[in-house]
């Protein structure tokens, strides 16, 4: 959720609003509500932020590109040189491969 006091956007990553009395993230509240058999609140897709698990490199990343269909992100990193591919639909790391030398650039060909 984003608030804009004085034209500065402030994001709350855990889902609780600044004036909320609950310290639990909204996804946990929805999960508990659904588990109790009650009707779960509708999820608001627009305006949400989704984080990709493992979207990192130990040292640094040189290049990040996405596939033409937008389903995967591909990045190269330094020390130890490697290539990582993330599945954007599942928000997870699909695989990583280490290389013998630094990867300067790469091309994503359409399938």
TrEMBL record:
GO cellular component, one term: 90S preribosome
InterPro entries with a match to the protein in the record: Beta-prop_NOL10_N (IPR056551), N2O_reductase_N (IPR011045), NOL10/Enp2 (IPR040382), WD40/YVTN_repeat-like_dom_sf (IPR015943)
SUPFAM superfamilies membership: Nitrous oxide reductase, N-terminal domain
Superkingdom of source: Eukaryota
Transmembrane segments: none
Pfam families associated with the record: Beta-prop_NOL10_N
Domain Nucleolar protein 10-like N-terminal: 16-100
A biological process from GO: maturation of SSU-rRNA from tricistronic rRNA transcript (SSU-rRNA, 5.8S rRNA, LSU-rRNA)
Protein name: NUC153 and WD40 repeat-containing nucleolar rRNA processing-related protein
